[in-house]
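C-alpha cells for chain A. Residues wanted.
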C-alpha cells in the first residue's frame, strides 16, 4: 500500500503570490498533484497534513479545492494552525469522513489494510499544537477499538523537537501525555506530521515519526540557537510511505517533484557494470 503525503501548501486566494510575492503556492501544488497522478506504481491514497491555506479564508479553500480536483487518487485532510477549522469542515462537506458539528477534526479510516487516524492538533488562535484531555481520550478509545490492524497516524504538529528553535516553539506542547497513551498500543506503526516544512525523522517509544518536506517552500535549516525564522525555495518534495501488509512495517521515501536527468542504467545489456 502506497501513501503520499502533501503538507503545508499555504494556498492564497485566486492564486495570489505569498510572502512578499515570492511564493507561487498554487503553481507548486499543481505540480505536486501531477506528480502524484503520474507516480508509478500507483499511489493508493494521499494525506494532506494541514495548512492547506495561508489564512483560512473561504477563497483560499476554493483555490485549493480547484487544484485538488485534478488529483485522481482518494485524499484525506486534517487542519493546521493556518487553517480555519470550521470553514474547512463546512467547505469540504462532501468529504464524508470529516466529523460534523464536532469541536475537533479527528476521524478514523478503516477501509484499508492499515487503519488510518487523522488527528486534530490545532489550538484556536495559536501556532502551537496541543491535545486536550478530551482529544487524548478520543485517541485512547479509538486505538482500543481499532486494535486488530496496524495503525498509521497523521497530524499537523510534530510531537518532538527538531533543533530548529523557531519551529520547535510551535510544536505539540503536551507530547508526553500523547506518548504515555501510545505506549500501550504497539499496533501504532508510524506517525506522519507536517508544520516544519522539512524532512525530519525520529523514533520515540519505538514508533517511527516523520515530518514531510514541503511541496511549496521549505523552512531554512538553521540549527543555531535563536536563529531567525526564514524560508528557502528548495526543490518541492513529498513523502511516499510504503505500508507493508505482511510485515506491518512502514518505510518512508522522499520523492522530488520535477524533471531530472535519468534514470540511467548501471549495467549493459550483457549484465556488465558500465565503466
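Reply:
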Amino acid at each position: 500500500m502506497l501513501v503520499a503525503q502533501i503538507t503545508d501548501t499555504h494556498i492564497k486566494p485566486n492564486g495570489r503570490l505569498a510572502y512578499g510575492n515570492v511564493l507561487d503556492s498554487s503553481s507548486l501544488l499543481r505540480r505536486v498533484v501531477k506528480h502524484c497522478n503520474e507516480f508509478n506504481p500507483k499511489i493508493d491514497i494521499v494525506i494532506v497534513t494541514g495548512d492547506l491555506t495561508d489564512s483560512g479564508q473561504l477563497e483560499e479553500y476554493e483555490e485549493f479545492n480547484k487544484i485538488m480536483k485534478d488529483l485522481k487518487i482518494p485524499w484525506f485532510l486534517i487542519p493546521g494552525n493556518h487553517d480555519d477549522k470550521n470553514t474547512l469542515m463546512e467547505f469540504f462537506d462532501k468529504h464524508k469522513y470529516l466529523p460534523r458539528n464536532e469541536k475537533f477534526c479527528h476521524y478514523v479510516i478503516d477501509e484499508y489494510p492499515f487503519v488510518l487516524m487523522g488527528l486534530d492538533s490545532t489550538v484556536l488562535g495559536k501556532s502551537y499544537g496541543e491535545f486536550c484531555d478530551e482529544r487524548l481520550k478520543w485517541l485512547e478509545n479509538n486505538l482500543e477499538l481499532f486494535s486488530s490492524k496496524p495503525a498509521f497516524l497523521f497530524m499537523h504538529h510534530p510531537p518532538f523537537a527538531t533543533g530548529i528553535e523557531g519551529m520547535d516553539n510551535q510544536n505539540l506542547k503536551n507530547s508526553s501525555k500523547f506518548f504515555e497513551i501510545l505506549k500501550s498500543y504497539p499496533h501504532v506503526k508510524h506517525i506522519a506530521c507536517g508544520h516544519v516544512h522539512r524532512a525530519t525523522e525520529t523514533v520515540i517509544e519505538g514508533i517511527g515519526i516523520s515530518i514531510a518536506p514541503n511541496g511549496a517552500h521549505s523552512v531554512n535549516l538553521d540549527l543555531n540557537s535563536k536563529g531567525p525564522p526564514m524560508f528557502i525555495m528548495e526543490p518541492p518534495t513529498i513523502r511516499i510511505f510504503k505500508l507493508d501488509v505482511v510485515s506491518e512495517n512502514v518505510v518512508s521515501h522522499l520523492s522530488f517533484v520535477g524533471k531530472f536527468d535519468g534514470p540511467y542504467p548501471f549495467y549493459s545489456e550483457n549484465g556488465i557494470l558500465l565503466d
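DSSP finds six helices and 13 strands in the chain. The longest strand covers residues 237-243.
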